[in-house]
Amino acid sequence: MFDSIIDPTVGAPGNDRGRTALAGRPAQLNGLRLGLLVNTKRNAADFLEEVAAALESEYGVTTVLTRTKPSIVHPAPPEMLEEFRGETDVVVVGVGDCGSCSASAVADGLQLEAAGIPAAVICSDAFRVSADAMANLQGTPGYEYVTTAHPVASLSREGVRERAVAALPEIVGMLTRPAAAVAS
Amino acid sequence: MTALEDPVRTAREAIRYCYEQGWTDGLPVVPATREDLDAFLATTDRDPDEVIGAQEHLNRRVTVRQAAVNAIMAGCEPEYFPVVLAAWDALNGEPATNGGAWQSTSGPAPLLVANGPMRQRLGINCAGGVFGPGFRANATIARAIGLIVRNGYGIKPQQLEQATQGVPGRWQLLVGENEELSPWEPLSVVGGLELGVDAVSAMLIRCCEYVDNRHTESAEAVLQDLADSLARIGAYLGIRHSSGGLVLGPEHAHVLADAGYSRADVQQWLFEHATHSHEELAAAGKVGPGGPAEGDAAFPMMPSAAEIPVLVAGAANAAISMVFRPFGWASWSGRSVPVRWSADARPTTVQEVSP
C-alpha cells in the first residue's frame, strides 16, 4: 500500500564486502613475532604492554612492532597494515572502549586477518553491540573478540595488569586455535 | 470507512509504516514521495547523485537525493533544502565531526547558526525563543541533519551510536544570529564570507548552560559571570583543554560593546579569566598530562582566545546568555558555508517569522 514512500536509507552503493576469510593460526606462539596495534584510548597502550609482557614471559613471543593509530575512529591506514604484514606473525589490537573505537578495533582485526595475520581484538564489554554491528557491516557476523570489563580508562596500572593477565588465556586461544572457531 | 476512503486515516497509516521501518527519530515523519523529492531537488543545482558525506568504515555514502528524502521526512519546505545542504557541508567541514562524533559516548548535538537575509525569507528565528521550539525552519532543518545521520549512515542509538546520555536539543539546534541587534559583525563574516551572504556555520556541542545576570551595568561583572561557566571543571576533559563558546543575548552583547569591547576583546578577557588552580582541578581528580603544574594558581581552561566562538541571538528583553560547550577538544573551524539555491528556486516571498 505504501510502495510510493521513498526509502530514506538508500544512498550511494557501498562496497560489496564478502565474509573475511580469517588467517591460518599457528599451533603455538613460541618464537613468533608479536605486533601491537594501539588506539589512543586511555590505558590502551598500558593494557597492550601488559599483554605483551605476559605473552613474552609465558609464551615465548618477541614484541617487534607497536603502532598507535592516527585516528581512534578509523581503521589503521594501509601503510601501517603493511608494516604489520612485513614484520609480525600475530597482532593484538585494543582497547575498544568507546562508541566508535570498539567498532573500529573490530574492523582492524578483520583487515589484519584479510592480510593473513592472526589477530586478537580486545574490546570492553560495554561496547559489544557496536563491535558486533561492525562485524556485521564488514560482512563477517560472528567475528569473535576478547572482552574485558568496562571501564578500562579509570584503572591504575596495577588494575590494568590484572585485567591483561585475566584476558591472556582467551587472547592466546584466539591467536592459536583453528580459524573456523574464531568466526563461529 | 476503510483507510483508502479516509485520507486522514491513510496519512496516519503511512506515518505508522515509517515507524515500522525504523526510519524515525521517535517523532512522526512526513512520508517522502517522488513528487516531493522532485520539488526539493529543483531547489539546488547539485547533482542528485553527488556523494555529500561518507562513513567509509561503515560502508555508507549519503547522496544529495537521500538528503532530500530525509529533509522531506523532517518536515522541511522545499526552499529549506539548500540550507540543509549547507548545514550538512558546514558540519562535515568541522574536524570534530570526522572524529567519531556520531558514534561517540558524548552524543554531541550540532549547533547550526544561520546568517543573512534568508532568516527573514524562510522564517528562521533569531529572536525570542531562539533555541526553540516553535519555528518550523529552525526545527525541521536541524532535524533533517539527524535523520540523515540515522537513515543515511545507519547510525542509531544503542547500536552504532553509543551515547551515554546524549545531549538535550540534539537535532534541534538551528539558531539565527540576531544580526539586527548584534553590535558586532555577523558570525558568517568571521567565518570568511561577505556581509549579507546567506550562510550556515556549524559546531558540535555537548551542552548549553544559561548565565542570568540582569543586575549590573559592569561589563567586567558580566564577563566574570560568563568566565565562571566557561571554566566549569566538569567540562574539562584533561590531557588537553575543552573549549567553550557564547550565544550572547542582545542585552549582554550591548553591555560589553558599550564598554568598548570588540568580539576579540571579549574572547581575550574570557581566555584570561576562565581559569582554575592546580588545587581545584586536583580536588576533582582532573590533573595529569597537559594540565597545570603543582602550585599553578590560574591555569587557563580555554585552549585559546580565538577558540571561544561568540555570537548574538535571542530577544532584547532580559540580560540572559548561553554558554555552550564544543564536543571533544575541538572548537569552531572558523569557516561558514554559503547557502546556494538554484536560479529558479531562490525564494523571494517574505514569510512571517512565526510557526
Quick overview:
By secondary structure, chain A is α/β, with parallel strands linked by helices. Chain A contains six helices and five strands.
Describe the structure.
- The complex is a heterodimer of chains A (184) and B (355).
- Chain A is an alpha/beta fold and 184 residues long.
- Chain A has one domain (33-182): 3-Layer(aba) Sandwich (Rossmann fold), CATH 3.40.50.2300.
- Helices cover 40% and strands 16% of the residues of chain A.
- Chain A is built from 6 helices and 5 strands.
- In chain A, helix 1 links the parallel strand 1 (33-38) and strand 2 (62-68).
- In chain A, helix 1 crosses helix 5 (157-176) and helix 3 (101-114) crosses helix 4.
- Chain A starts with 32 loop residues before the first strand and ends with a helix.
- The mean pLDDT of chain A is 91.
- With 355 residues, chain B is of the alpha+beta class.
- Chain B has one domain (32-338).
- Chain B has 11 helices and 11 strands.
- In chain B, strands 3, 4, 5, 6, 9, 10 and 11 form a 7-stranded mixed beta sheet that branches. In chain B, strands 1-2 form a two-stranded antiparallel sheet.
- In chain B, helix 3 crosses helix 6 (136-153).
- The longest helix of chain B has 18 residues, at 136-153.
- Chain B is globular and about 75 Å long.
- Chains A and B meet through helix 3 and helix 4 of A and helix 1, strand 2, helix 3 and helix 6 of B.
- Chain B: This is Thioredoxin.
- Chain A: InterPro entries: UGSC-like_dom, UGSC_seleno.
- Chain A: It holds the Pfam family UGSC.
